[in-house]
Amino acid sequence: MIPTTGLLLTDLYELAMLEAYFASDMEDEAVFEFFVRELPVGYGYLVAAGIEDVAELVEHARFTDAELDWMTKSGRFGAAFVDRLRDFRFTGSLDAMPEGTLFFPDEPVLRITAPLAQAQLLETRIINLLQYPILIATKGSRCATAAAGKQLVDFGLRRAHGAEAGLLAARACYLGGFDGTSTVLAAPRYGIPIYGTMAHSFIEAHDDELAAFEHFALARPEGLVLLIDTYDTEAAARKLLGLAPRLAERGTAIQAVRIDSGDLAEHARRVRRILDAGGRSEIRIFASGGLDEHQLQALLDAGAPIDGFGVGSKLDTSADAPYLDCAYKLMEYGGRPRRKHSEDKSTWPGRKQVVRRFDENGKMAGDQIQLAEEPVQDEGEALLQPIIQQGRRIGRLGTLEEARARRSDQVARLPSALRRLDAEPSYPVSASDSVRELAREADAFIKQQRNPGQRELKRLNR
Asked: Among 50, 182, 169, which Cα is nearest to 110's?
């Protein structure tokens, strides 16, 4: 069986270029970098995520027999080309920002240095593995800022665009500051805390709402959260005042109630008054239902007595920013700088590093994109770190918990204006003189190729 996440999970043109490279003996070293051209509207930063999955891809990139058999039978590829792929291995290097690092437009987040065919083939999947986790980690971070310490749980698996997306989202939003997820597989896979309540169908399946609450509580006494908006939110809250003492006699405590519909702020106020008046101020209020960072902020600004939130559809689909204007581009080949010069899509050539500066208070003050071989000046911090060399891991990416802590620390060190949900002005990012000089060199080469001398014209016209 052909694996669903193997090397055939790519665009056809990657394989077409690969075959052409092999046929032309183009095997010199190439440098590709992944970067984002623009931030989504209102965003002040992005969070690096997905690097671990890219490292796994690169380190274990192989064509299976099933994939090669299909390529042969498809008739699209030459037999000699398919045969060469049997020994395909990644022999180059990977440098990247650690996960949880905040980054900004035009900054290389990841660099691949390898023989041209190897680096080229990975393009589609690398973009695929980086763009989505970056979006979700960043949206998760924005939600965490808006929630101001309130509990956040990812509820988005059922709305995610596929199984892989749902699992990646659980990891990414946890990296971004969420406390956990309802996605069960995220626990054994990533060690992420999992949370859950109940569905309205459980209540509806019972003839009596109070009986539904009691049955659920007796079956699932730990971390008990009861959904109270199936019929009448406030009436259900009153029912709990009689149920809570009976459950307490059996050693079960109602931890929270969940409200999933209507005017969440007003329902939360009414329910809080009912619970407090009934001597149940320890029962927390948890809210869900189409939330995002803007609604979280609005609810808390309105003083809604809500202790935690389940965020799903708009998180796992990154509803306000469903894609990034990102790219994985060739920056050097055969020792010569390469530069895309398309309108509005030009790139800085060469293998580059990002150096971050801080002010006297430890706040992030600005980044410089410079050539990788340039020394790091003024106590700056080089962001891209070596992960793989000669096809093997040499550096550790760190744990998911370390990535969470890194994101939290860097958001705290970000200028306050960029932490806002409508961030402005933009964070300062500059290119060094050496990068600009290399760009001029690349431009001169491009111009020469577009305007060959008379001798070259005569040769071409023979």
From this structure: 50
